[in-house]
Write a structure and sequence with these properties.
alpha+beta; Immunoglobulin-like; repeat; FA58C; 5-stranded mixed beta sheet; Alpha-Beta Plaits; Jelly Rolls; disordered N terminus; Galactose-bd-like_sf; 9-stranded antiparallel beta sheet
């Protein structure tokens, strides 16, 4: 322990409940020997005297007169008749004896005698004992001063001299080296000790030694260097301690230091006498705590695998133990597995689990911080939180109340990116071009939809060709080459210019009926995948007609018929217009007549054909009549093609002698009277029949019932007071094609008696509505609410606003689950909010809640695949728009800038934006149900009109769409539709100026673009630091509470202005982060664009990734390099 503090160990005793007690005071060899004998009996003779050590295990090189039989090494046994006799002509040390135990033994003492013959006065007066250490090197037995020890020998030829070893040794080979002798070397001996193998394990952390990959490989120089350092340091600390034998490294492991760094920790077997264990433990702890060592004083753990006869705690996890054999897992996987324990020792203590994971740096090989991932007996880890590369996983288990009951196991995994998948889909719509889409290619591990982040390359060849080593050469441009019949376009097999996910290729010059092979190569980071598609050029040209609107097996006469012609073939690009004709065909006599009397229009340069007045045609009651629409194209004077669309006209249900629709009773009161509406006796071959009962309110249509039932019991609203409370009911009967026949029924519905109203009728019915809502009975709740609203709307005592507000409040929890509910909810809201100068915020909120519920139901029910007809969608949407418009009028008035109350203004703005979103949803409903198929669809209401208009982008250019005095002019198509086949997404860009803390002459705009996918926006506060050639900015934090706005919503581009006193210089990177605050902090950042206003210099920093704890790479901080022109 040279160079460190030294001091005497204090006297006293240290006892534990392990059935022995160790005395620290070393007063004499006899006392030590007594202690050993009392504790672990390591003073037994090892077998020289009783021949347990065989002759073959004892050897000597030199023997007296070369007489091995009489004087050889086999005679050197204590109390033998005579012993080993050396060569007197050789120096004493050359007459050495070697004893080989074959197994490791602890040597604690040696006893010697002289030669034994009274006539021969030969004995060894001094000697050294050498032994083979754990490294296979020969060492001398040392004294407590650390120096080689010379033992005093005999003083005559027969007396036994016993020498204890001050520091016992563990060895398999002992050499007795005579130093001096009387006349000649004469020797008999016995060795004392016990079998080796007792040890305890110490976990010791090295100071300032970070764990790296090198420390996992025992053959690595750094590993060997650490093991040498550890063993030498333990020898320095414990080498002079009685009972220490040697130290052996089990392995090196990464463990977490108090500074959270991952340090090299050695698991060391410290071999010792059992009786010396407590002394060595105390000495080791003291050394770490009070002296300067290579070990971290705050970290030390112990295991005692040899203390008891049971199997100590063992931990096992099913992971590979080396990085070379580590199993691969994809980033998208969830890693989960249990820990297996083995412990036959009885213990009542609780088990404590600790799972830690370290990411291994690919460049440096260093193990990252050991992050905690659970304290249970099973391990769960979403691998998206890990980077690609290797990771170390460790499970440590401790049992409370049981010193040294600690064990761990570890393993390695390799996290890899999920594979790419390449897919080719033919989306060609004409025979002159092939359009291949790679849009279904994907990164199987990405959470982002679509092909974002993928790179594409397209290749083409004839089926009998192969791609040569010149596969990268471009083959869709001449590049000075002559055309041939090779490849797709005559320039051989190879790569096409397009790098887009959709390949469009003109095939007019490709060889007809030949098969071509297209290859798609998809790449991302270091991954790639490929797919092939075989395509044969078809020379034929064909015209087909498909139906866009009114497309059942039979055409309904109540709607218009919209058809669209399609051309397939390589000459379709020569088609400029379509000529349409309409014919009646009599299948009985095969006669054909041209029909002229219908109104018809062509759209989209004649590609679409709209027919009105279908009701003027003969319906299917005449089974011999069919109609045929023809679309004709003429390529030249001699060549023309035509497509045909035959159809039958449906007939609505017809009356019979028993047909009737009636209502019972003919008169009654609102709220109290139940009316029965029934229709029967209708006939149609296209079953099932559909019955629709409704009436018209001033705010739109109100449905009573729609479906297959021909009767309904219902309550009705108060009729028109000016017409003796008359109410017109509409009973419609339709077939499976939704062709309806209408019957009108007149009924009188009077308001409740004044006595009933005075008796609290309204309040009682409000209570009933609440009960219906709580019970989930939306039918009766909406019906009674509307009846009650029709009653209180005519109150002249000024209580209407109070009563109507109460109705809305009681209904706000309703769950809309039918179209009938939608119409009644819309009517109730419209009555409650119309013609009011001031509406309480609570009422606006209740109205908005009801309308949102109704609109969301519409969006679910009315889709392109729903059975509801277009006319019903328009009627229901009109009533819903009336209610939405009424709320919109109120909220927009509150949101005016002139409003003094900021709270009302902000709430008004919030309600207005939500209401406008409902208008958008209604428009989507109308579009999805097919209303858009016609030239122009208009749905009007008292406040909001929706116009749906569909055309090709090139035909919309500069067009003005008008309705009812309002119009909108579409800009030139080349400005907003750069590609006629692409859809255009328009985003609202909000620009705000950040308050600057200093005035300056250098102004920057910072535009931050957020992804448009669901949940891409963030509620967190965002910060950036700008790095430039001349300076680095201070952190710039965009905090919502400071700016009084919610920024970074999905699909948004937020632009901020930054004013500085001096220029930063050319920017080369930015650091962007967020604080993970708010209820939805995950953020998909697309791009940051920074521009210096004065120089007009602009820098793009492309992110295109998540900043989120649970998504992407699990990062909320990102460093972005400025993109080059090539990158952009």
């Amino acid at each position: 322990m040279t160079g460190r503090k030294t001091r005497e160990l204090p006297g006293g005793k240290h006892c534990e409940a392990i059935n022995f007690c160790v005395t620290f005071k070393y007063s004499s060899s006899r006392e030590v020997s007594d202690i050993l004998r009392l504790t672990d009996d390591c003073t037994k003779a090892l077998g020289m005297e009783d021949n347990r050590i065989t002759n073959s295990q004892i050897s000597a090189v030199l023997v007296y007169n070369d007489d091995y039989a009489n004087y050889g090494s086999q005679n050197a046994r204590l109390h033998n008749f005579r012993g080993y006799r050396g060569d007197p002509q050789a120096a004493e040390p050359l007459n050495f004896l070697v004893i080989n135990f074959d197994v490791e033994m602890v040597i604690t003492a040696i006893a010697t005698q002289g030669f034994g013959d009274p006539k021969v006065n030969e004995w060894v007066t001094s000697f050294q004992m050498l032994y083979k250490d754990s490294k296979g090197e020969q060492e001398s037995v040392k004294g407590t001063d650390g120096q080689g020890l010379v033992f005093f020998g005999n003083i005559d030829g027969n007396m036994v001299k016993r020498n204890p070893l001050p520091i016992p040794v563990l060895t398999s080979v002992v050499t007795i080296l005579p130093i001096t002798a009387n006349n000649n070397v004469g020797l008999r001996l016995e060795l004392y000790g016990c079998k080796g193998g007792y040890y305890f394990v110490a976990w010791l952390m090295l100071k300032e030694t970070l764990f790296s990959v090198a420390h996992t490989d025992p053959s690595n120089y750094e590993y060997e260097e650490v093991t040498v350092t550890v063993v030498e340091e333990i020898r320095r600390i414990l080498g002079t301690s009685r009972g220490f034998l040697h130290a052996r490294i089990i392995n090196l492991s990464p463990q977490k230091s108090t500074s959270l760094a991952t340090m090299v920790t050695a698991m060391v077997e410290i071999h010792c006498l059992r009786s010396s264990e407590q002394v060595l433990l105390a000495n080791l702890k003291t050394a770490l705590e009070e002296f300067e060592t290579v070990f971290e004083p705050s970290y030390i753990k112990f295991q005692f695998p040899k203390r008891c006869g049971c199997t100590p705690l063992r931990v096992r996890i099913k992971l590979r133990k080396t990085m070379k054999t580590a199993e691969e897992y994809r980033l998208s996987q969830m890693l989960r597995f249990p820990v297996e324990l083995e412990n036959s020792c009885q213990s009542s203590g609780s088990k404590f689990y600790s799972w830690t994971v370290s990411k291994i740096d690919k460049e440096t090989g260093l193990f990252g911080p050991l992050l905690e991932f659970g304290k249970k007996d099973r391990f769960f880890l979403p691998l998206r939180m890990m980077r690609v590369g290797y990771a170390y996983i460790q499970c440590l288990v401790e049992i409370s109340g049981n010193t040294g009951s600690i064990a761990y196991d570890y393993g390695y995994i390799r996290v890899v990116r999920d594979p790419l998948q390449a897919h080719i889909i033919d989306i060609s719509e004409s025979s002159s071009k092939i359009i291949l889409s790679a849009k279904e290619s994907l990164d199987t591990g990405s959470r982002r939809p679509g092909t974002q982040g993928l790179r594409f390359a397209w290749f083409c060849r004839l089926v009998n060709e192969t791609f040569s080593h010149e596969i990268e050469r471009v083959v869709d441009k001449p590049l000075g080459r002559n055309k041939s019949n090779s490849g797709c376009l005559g320039f051989g097999p190879g790569r096409l210019t397009s790098r887009n996910e959709v390949l469009t290729l003109d095939i007019t010059d490709m060889i007809k009926s030949e098969m071509y092979v297209f290859k798609l190569m998809v790449e991302k980071d270091f991954r790639n995948a490929s797919a092939v598609y075989e395509f044969t050029v078809k020379p034929a040209v064909s015209i087909s007609i498909r139906c866009l609107s009114n497309c059942g097996e039979k055409v309904t006469p109540q709607d218009d018929l919209l058809l669209e012609a399609h051309c397939a073939g390589h000459s379709c690009d020569k088609v400029s217009r379509y000529k349409w004709s309409f014919h009646l065909v009599n299948q009985e006599d095969l006669s054909v007549q041209v029909v002229h009397h219908l109104r018809s229009y062509s759209q989209m340069n004649g590609q679409r054909f709209l027919m009105e007045d279908i009701s003027k045609l003969r319906d299917d009651s005449n089974k011999q009549i069919i109609y045929v629409v023809k679309a004709i194209v003429q390529l030249d004077k001699k060549t023309k093609f035509e497509g045909r669309f035959p159809f039958l006209v449906n007939s609505p249900p017809n009356r019979t002698s028993n047909t009737s629709c009636h209502v019972t009773p003919m008169e009654g009161e609102a709220i109290s009277t139940d009316f029965l509406i029934t229709c029967s006796g209708w006939n149609d071959e296209d079953k099932p029949l559909v019955y629709e009962f409704r009436y018209q309110d001033k705010h739109g249509m109100v449905l009573i019932q729609t479906g297959p039932l021909n009767r309904v019991i219902t309550k009705l609203p108060v009729g028109k007071a000016t017409e003796d409370y008359s109410l017109v009911l509409e009973a419609q009967v339709g077939d499976s094609f939704k062709d309806f026949v209408e019957t009108r029924l007149l009924v009188k519905v009077r308001p409740p008696k004044q006595s009933e109203l005075n008796d609290g009728l309204v309040e009682k019915q409000l209570s009933v509505i609440r009960d219906f809502v709580q019970a989930g009975d939306a039918n009766r709740a909406t019906e009674l609410a509307f009846m009650l609203m029709s009653t209180v709307k005519d109150f002249s005592d000024g209580s209407f606003e109070e009563k109507s507000g109460a109705i809305l409040q009681d209904m706000k929890g309703i769950k809309v689950n039918s179209v009938v509910h939608v119409t009644k909810v819309a009517a109730v809201v419209a009555w409650a909010t119309e013609n009011r100068r001031s509406v309480p915020m609570s009422l606006q909120t209740d109205a908005l809640t009801l309308l949102t519920e109704a609109t969301d139901f519409m969006a679910i029910q009315f889709t392109s695949n729903s059975t509801h007809d277009t006319k019903l969608a328009k009627n229901v949407s009109s009533g819903l728009l009336n209610s939405i418009g009424s709320v919109l009028q109120i909220s927009s008035r509150d949101a005016k800038v002139e409003t003094k109350d900021n709270f009302i203004k902000e709430k008004g703005r919030e309600t207005t934006m939500k209401t406008l979103d409902l208008v958008r949803k209604v428009g989507e409903v109308l579009y999805s149900t097919g209303s858009n198929r016609q030239n122009k669809t208009v749905v009007k209401s008292n406040f909001v009109d929706i116009i749906i208009y569909e055309e090709k982008p090139k035909d919309l250019s500069g067009k003005s769409i008008s309705e009812g005095g309002a119009s909108v002019a579409i800009p030139d198509s080349k400005d907003i539709f750069p590609n006629a086949n692409e859809s255009v997404t328009i985003q609202v860009i909000a620009e705000f100026e950040l308050p600057s803390r200093q005035d300056g002459h250098h102004t920057y705009t910072i535009s931050i673009q957020t992804g448009a996918w669901r949940n891409s926006g963030t509620t967190a506060n965002v910060g950036v630091v700008l790095f430039a050639e001349e300076s680095v900015s201070n952190p710039i934090v965009f905090a919502h509470q400071d700016l009084e706005k919610i920024f970074f919503a999905r699909g948004s581009v937020n632009t901020f202005t930054l004013s500085l006193g001096k220029s930063l210089g050319s920017l080369y990177k930015v650091n962007v982060w967020h604080d993970n605050s708010g209820n939805s902090p995950s953020w998909f950042l697309l791009e940051i664009v920074i521009e210096e206003i004065k120089t007009e210099e602009k820098w793009h920093f492309v992110a295109n990734r998540w900043l989120a704890v649970e998504k992407g790479l699990g990062e909320i901080e990102l460093e972005l390099q400025a993109a080059s022109n090539e990158d952009l």
